[in-house]
Specification:
8-stranded mixed sheet, 19 strands, UDP-N-acetylmuramoyl-L-alanine:D-glutamate ligase, about 450 residues, 2 domains, alpha/beta, single chain
């Protein structure tokens, strides 16, 4: 049995039997709240930083995790979806839990899951079970802080039993339509649901339509707001080898000469949000130790986010999966690389805006190779090819049935059409695409 093309062991198979996962929301928290109550409310055993938004959640969560560790704290990080292994989602002290520990925790939870299922009109979903599992692992560890990423939306997301006192709302865009809504305002209302009474909210720059909803909700619940561009932000940045050098305005001070080993202005903005969240979480009035801040950011990695996996030609993997994410990817490509000929490999999921993503990518790519992943949710390659030909034109589109052949074709096209030093391949379209490409390229 597989989930999104990833082979499963017994534990993963048991969880997969509870699909639907991230793309499914039942608009209540009854089942996860019941499970947590039966477990003694493990989510209350540690303070948390709760992150939502359309793009950037996982990267920002990884930065928060690294910063907390640089200040001597032991964080538990819960993110989704995973690139290659389910254990990536639940990390202790920056390291994924191992298969044995995860399996043991699941066996401990099993009787409680069965009890909740028996008392509910429908069984707990994959994501609800995994969320309860993460909370139990973190409470048992124990951790000093939870760094918890929302799965989908916010208000009805299983993670929202946290009621965290530090929240991060990253930029809101159109994604998971119509699941979360069809307008930015409707989607922002779902994201705003993680903000509870008395919380401190780190608010990234937002489209006006989303900002209005978020600010109004924060005012209604009495939350303290820190806004990008006012209370925190990026004061300066310069491209550097392997990343960028940034100057960040935090809530309590300015931090200069911070090396961030990630590409793009969007990652600099994510770093500013992560810093503000950690400042709010630690609650001090003075500036943080700048050396600890620099050390934390220097340790950050973000697999599958404009990650260089091969050279000659350069092969990049990026987990962009919506139009807004592709805009950030294209800007970062222009900022950090000097390709004269870039070939894209694109495979998307069937519920995503394939045309919107391809239209954003079109000016940046010389050619595109469309394909599909092994995920049962994949958009069939013939359908994607039809859209790609409409966007790129017939002569700029190649089609391959599998991702392995698509990468090989893209590398050949890149080598044929440009000097090796300025040729590149970008593999993108979904987190599943990025994960499958990483497995293939690392092999």
């Amino acid at each position: 049995m597989t989930v999104d093309g990833t082979p499963l062991g017994p534990l993963q198979a048991a969880l997969a039997a509870r699909f639907p996962a991230e793309d499914h929301i039942v608009p209540d928290l009854d089942r996860i709240a019941m499970l947590c109550e039966l477990l003694g409310d493990p989510q209350k055993a540690f303070p948390s930083i709760h992150l939502t938004g359309t793009n950037g959640k996982t990267s920002t969560a990884r930065m928060v995790d690294a910063l907390l560790r640089s200040f001597g704290l032991r964080p538990g990080r819960y993110t989704s979806p995973h690139l290659e292994s389910l254990t990536e989602r639940i990390c202790l002290d920056g390291v994924p839990v191992d298969d044995v520990r995860l399996a043991e925790a699941y066996e401990e939870l099993r009787p409680y899951l069965e009890l909740v299922d028996s008392r509910s009109s429908e069984p707990m979903t994959f994501f609800e079970v995994l969320t309860g599992l993460a909370f139990a692992v973190f409470a048992d560890a124990p951790v000093d802080a939870g760094v918890i990423e929302v799965g989908v939306g916010g208000a009805w997301d299983a993670t929202n039993v946290l009621q965290a006192q530090t929240c991060v709302v990253l930029p809101v865009g159109l994604d998971h339509v119509p699941l979360l809504g069809t307008t930015l305002a409707e989607i922002a209302a779902q994201k705003a649901g993680i903000v509870h009474a008395g919380a401190t909210v780190v608010l990234a720059a937002q489209p006006p339509e989303a900002a209005e909803v978020l600010l109004r909700h924060c005012a209604e619940v009495g939350a303290t707001i820190a806004r990008e561009g006012l209370e925190f932000g990026v004061l300066g940045r310069a491209t550097a080898v392997g990343g960028q050098l940034v100057t960040l305005q935090g809530l309590t001070g300015v931090y200069e000469d911070v090396f961030l080993p990630l590409h793009g202005v969007h990652q600099a903005a994510n770093a500013a949000a992560a810093l503000a969240a950690v400042e709010a979480f630690l609650g001090g009035t003075g500036s943080l130790d700048p050396e600890a801040v620099r050390d934390g950011f220097a340790q950050v990695d973000a697999p599958g986010r404009l990650e260089v996996l091969r050279t000659s030609p350069t092969v990049l993997v990026d987990a962009g999966h919506n139009a807004a994410g592709m805009v950030a990817t294209v800007h970062a490509l222009t900022d950090a690389f000097a390709f004269t000929h870039l070939v894209g490999v694109v495979a998307v999921l069937g519920d995503k805006d394939a045309r919107g993503m391809l239209e954003v990518l079109e000016p940046a790519l010389s050619q595109v190779v469309v394909t599909q992943t092994r995920s049962p949710r994949a958009l069939p390659v013939d359908e994607l090819a039809e859209i790609a030909r409409d966007v790129f034109g017939e002569d700029r589109v190649a089609v391959e049935d599998g991702l392995d052949d698509a990468i090989d074709t893209a590398v050949s096209l890149s080598e044929q059409e440009a000097e090796l030093g300025s040729a590149g391949v970008l593999v993108t379209g979904s987190v599943v695409t990025a994960g499958e490409a990483r497995r293939l390229l690392k092999r």
